[in-house]
Design a protein that fits this description.
477 residues, alpha+beta, Helix Hairpins, endopeptidase fold (from Nostoc punctiforme), six-stranded antiparallel sheet, two-stranded parallel ribbon, 11 helices, 8 strands
């Protein structure tokens, strides 16, 4: 065999051997594809070529539902114990690369942030007080002012009823005393009438006066006896008249005492209802304040301070305030008393000496000066002479709100001393700290002092909130 033929035979044999070992080039493989291992499943991106088609540069492709294998217990083997993976088909991530997640339409911010592995912000959820705090201060301030006004109205009604109850109690006591005296007089009259009746019975005679005159030994003595008898008869008639009048008076006084007692009981019941109303109003304020965050309280307080400052500046700029005039002697004494109470706590219905409400402070200040003024702010506004704000002098009373439900004592220089609200203390405030209604003067006939120096204000006299928002509300027991 030639060398060329030998090489051809060898090449053919090699090709046959290679062909016998290689699989067929066409036709499906009848064997199922092997399952990928758990390690390879974690190491490979769960994407398809279609999922990356059209992807923008620099973005991580998002898997389609078809590209996500069914979840098995093994799929969470790498999760932190105690946590639950929250995924959606559209939001499945590549476990190799941690993409930044944009909030998905239809998901809450909380869910979107959880997908990115971030902790939701406490202020992110719409509708929470924290989220609305910056824009809610005006509404909160209006709401709190409304609650405080309701409480002040209820307090002043309670104070007025308390005054009426005290007056009616005194009237009842007076009526009972008068009834006791009338009954004593009636008893005395009845005893006198009985005695005279018995004397008349014992001295009664069956003989006529003419026959006794004929049979008498001394006619002159008989005339004297007749005179005595006539006087006795007149006395009996007078006693009977007094008895009749005493009985009528006792009946009238008894009816008056019963009426006074009935009114007293009705006022006491009304006072209890109003006390409950005040407590309900206090509870409403306390509950509302308790539901606010420190940030909200600060925003409300800052807004009110801003509004008070603006109102005070407008009042001064308008020229309506006028210059400070000297007070009368009694006005100066009232101012000194009010300044001496600075720092004491507000308490509804209180008249001192340790706690005050607004009208309790002004009443006691003028009582200390020797004048009696009505107990409530509404009565002070209705009964005391009014003066224009431009004519204010220290000692005058400044009344606030259309219903006259708050009052303060003017001390000059555009300032007042007031017991503001529950949670606050007696303090010095701008005249415009509340919506101004007007002013009244307890001593319109008083002569102003030639020289006057206001007492020095204690340190921190203007500190603290005029609103009471920065302190807990104390309810009445």
């Amino acid at each position: 065999m030639s060398g060329r033929l030998l090489r051809a035979v060898c090449a053919t044999a090699v090709l046959a051997a290679v062909a016998a070992r290689a699989p067929a080039a066409t036709g499906p493989d009848p064997r199922p594809a092997p399952e990928p291992s758990e390690a390879s499943a974690k190491a490979l991106p769960r994407t398809t070529p279609d999922a990356t088609t059209g992807a923008s540069p620099g973005t991580t492709p998002r898997a389609t539902p078809d590209a996500t294998p069914d979840a098995t217990p093994d799929a969470t083997a790498g999760a932190t114990p105690g946590t639950t993976a929250r995924t959606t088909p559209d939001a499945a991530e590549d476990p190799v690369t941690a993409p930044s997640v944009t909030p998905t339409p239809g998901l809450t911010v909380d869910a979107s942030e959880a997908l990115a592995g971030r902790t939701p912000s406490a202020t992110a959820t719409p509708g929470t007080p924290e989220a609305a705090a910056p824009n809610a201060a005006p509404a909160l301030l209006t709401e709190l002012r409304t609650l405080y006004r309701r409480m002040e109205q209820a307090t002043e009604k309670y104070n007025a009823t308390d005054e009426k109850l005290a007056s009616r109690t005194a009237a009842t006591r007076k009526a009972n005393d008068a009834l006791t005296r009338a009954r004593r007089t009636l008893g005395t009259g009845r005893a006198d009438a009985g005695r005279l009746a018995r004397e008349q019975y014992r001295g009664r005679s069956d003989f006529s006066a003419y026959l006794r005159l004929l049979l008498a030994d001394e006619p002159s003595g008989l005339f004297d006896q007749s005179h005595v008898i006539a006087r006795a008869a007149a006395g009996r008639a007078a006693a009977v008249d007094r008895l009749t009048k005493a009985e009528k008076r006792a009946g009238v006084l008894a009816a008056a005492a019963r009426e006074a007692l009935a009114e007293q009981r009705a006022l006491a019941a009304e006072q209890r209802r109003q006390r409950d109303t005040v407590r309900t109003a206090l509870d409403a304020v306390e509950a509302r304040l308790a539901g606010l965050t420190p940030a909200q309280l600060g925003a409300v307080s800052a807004l009110e301070d801003e509004q008070v400052d603006a109102a005070q500046q407008d009042l001064v700029a308008s020229g309506a305030l006028g210059s400070t005039r000297p007070p009368t002697r009694q006005g100066a004494e009232a101012v000194a008393y009010a300044i001496g109470q600075i720092g004491k706590e507000y308490e509804w219905g209180a008249e001192g000496p340790d706690t005050f409400d607004c009208s309790g402070l002004t009443m006691r200040a003028w009582e200390h000066a020797g004048l009696t003024v009505p107990r409530t702010s509404q009565e002070q506004w209705a009964e005391l002479p009014r003066v224009p704000v431009s004519s204010l002098r220290p000692g005058d009373l400044v009344v606030y709100y259309p219903e006259a439900t708050h009052v303060a004592l003017y001390i000059g220089d555009g300032l007042v001393v007031q017991a503001p609200r529950p949670g606050a203390v007696v303090k010095v405030s701008p005249l415009a700290s509340n919506p101004l209604l007007g002013a009244v003067r307890p001593d319109p006939e008083g002569v102003p002092l030639d020289v006057y120096t206001r007492p020095e204000l204690p340190e921190g006299a203007s500190d603290g909130s005029d609103t009471g928002y920065d302190a807990p509300v104390e309810g009445a027991e």
